[in-house]
């Protein structure tokens, strides 16, 4: 609303300055200040505002209304009385408000460029996909209990005889077998960044969020390549004083599997009130399970690979100096919050 009002003011003042005859000024007056003019229309939208916003927006509204009428009035009177317009061309211009990218968009751009520097290729895969790519090809057959962790939205649509149901992708791992199919053979070095959806909403979860998924497949790929890539990313994204570690874990699509931790930005690993033991959890990773390579028609005797998948919002929040108390703020479209980035 604030933005809308400010834009309106700029637009109105620019038109008034440029108006060259009294008819045009009268038309502008009716358009902006008239009974069924734009400002009156906008004032009807006040009802939908939160109480705390109403006062501030109301003040801005009045300011803008009088700015427009103050710009119109003298010009109109000058015309009526035949006086020449008193135009001061040395006055500074009106600067339009400048926007910027959404913080999640900037994080995605930064993450892509970090991986692109070491030869990863940014790919995009469907955000509404078949069960086969989201689960089954990742070594999670239909009734596997591990699927429960993904709290998936299932689309009410006919099933495909081979690919199964349609789901809103609960993770970016659906890009793994799709990329193997696209290229047909290694080497593969992809980073898939996309929206993901899960049935969850609280201070640390939004039903829609983003993940970035790395996948590397080639001859002789081993855990040291995974660790090296993670270390490189952590230093580039979080800064040279942050460290990473791999902690044993379980995923169906990797063997062995890990959770990746990063040292806390406050205590740098010593342990403090905020992180307890010095480390913050970033996300999952591991060596690609041979069954996943087979699902992507890749020779699992000849090739090996590693993969990782992390939440963009989560990773972004762990960057130094950023403490967002409720992740849902990122998507509430509140300009007062977004303006701070
Ligand atoms: N897809 C997993 C999730 O959403 C994260 C993940 C774990 C991705 C391990 C990977 C991996 O590629 O190797 O929780």
Automatic annotation (TrEMBL):
UniProt: Mg(2+) binding residues: 255
Compartments (UniProt record): Cytoplasm
Gene3D superfamilies xrefs: Bira Bifunctional Protein, Domain 2 (3.30.930.10)
Gene Ontology molecular functions: ATP binding; magnesium ion binding; phenylalanine-tRNA ligase activity; tRNA binding
Protein name: Phenylalanine--tRNA ligase alpha subunit
PROSITE patterns: AA_TRNA_LIGASE_II (PS50862)
Subunit structure: Tetramer of two alpha and two beta subunits.
Cofactor: Mg(2+)
HAMAP family associated with the record: Phe_tRNA_synth_alpha1
InterPro entries linked: aa-tRNA-synth_II, aa-tRNA-synth_II/BPL/LPL, Phe-tRNA-synth_IIc_asu, Phe-tRNA_ligase_II_N, Phe_tRNA_ligase_alpha1_bac, Phenylalanyl-tRNA_Synthase, tRNA-bd_arm
Listed GO CC annotations: cytoplasm
A GO BP annotation: phenylalanyl-tRNA aminoacylation
Catalytic activity: tRNA(Phe) + L-phenylalanine + ATP = L-phenylalanyl-tRNA(Phe) + AMP + diphosphate + H(+)
SUPFAM superfamilies per the UniProt record, alphabetical: Class II aaRS and biotin synthetases, tRNA-binding arm
Cofactor remark from the record: Binds 2 magnesium ions per tetramer.
Keyword set, alphabetical order: Aminoacyl-tRNA synthetase, ATP-binding, Cytoplasm, Ligase, Magnesium, Metal-binding, Nucleotide-binding, Protein biosynthesis
Residue ranges of every copy of the Aminoacyl-transfer RNA synthetases class-II family profile domain listed in the record: 111-318
Enzyme class: ligase
Family: Belongs to the class-II aminoacyl-tRNA synthetase family. Phe-tRNA synthetase alpha subunit type 1 subfamily.
EC number(s) per entry: 6.1.1.20
